[in-house]
Amino acid sequence: MFQIIEYIKFLFKSTNQHGVHSPFVYDLVTKCFYDNTKHETYSTLSNYRKALLSNKESIEITDFGSGSRVFKSNTRAINKIAKTSGTSKKRAQLLFRIVKYFKPKHTLELGTSLGIATQAMALGHPENNIISIEGCAHISEFTKQHLSDFNIKNVSLKTGEFETMLPKLKDSNYDLIFFDGNHNKEATLDYFNTLIETAHNDSVFIFDDIYWSKDMLETWNIIKTHPKVTVTIDTFFWGFVSFRKEQAKENFTIRL
What we know:
The structure is a single chain. By secondary structure, the chain is α/β, with parallel strands linked by helices. 43% of the residues lie in helices and 17% in strands. The chain has helices spanning 2-13, 23-33, 41-53, 78-84, 89-102, 116-124, 137-149, 162-169, 185-195, 214-224; strands at residues 58-60, 75-77, 106-110, 129-134, 155-159, 176-179, 204-208, 231-234, 238-242, 250-253. Strand 4, helix 7 (137-149) and strand 5 form a beta-alpha-beta unit. The longest helix is centred in the middle third of the chain and has 14 residues, at 89-102.
């Protein structure tokens, strides 16, 4: 009910490119978000997803995040995880376009899961070196093999809890960070405050499920007020953060 109410509010306050006066955001919306090109790579994204949806193998899950709203057991079938928890077809295509548009060379992903989003980011820019962290060893082992089966070679998949792994990675600079591993307010803010030190002027952070709960919406609103954050874009399911110093501080709400 919370998400339904918030989505109605979102529809009333959101706009398309015609309500955007920032050249940076206008170009992103028109050339990337609203790009209707049928990219050839979409078929590869689809094949990766189809292979998961047809896989009935079950694995034991160790969930370090906020848990599942669907599954009651920690033994879950691959196809069920892909169907209920994996990145949707539409969002995978959007993530591919985002990486194709920004052309990041160093990307960090928090929460690999079955690698649907990981594959999309890997194919978006061949020179994109991705570090992806997955807390569950069984999922990590499966996904590493699945990515290999689809000839994805620019991903380094690391297994471990974020709290343990991030201090080892915070001395690097990242062009893109995709936060998709823990829908907990305190944890998300900790990750953000740790990783903001790795951001540069053209870095982009993407937060998944910013309307997951009241706590996550509060988290998103706190992030928007950070002094280093200049531009944010609320698309309801994802929140985008930019640190461009040449940009006046502004928050956008865009319908996709």
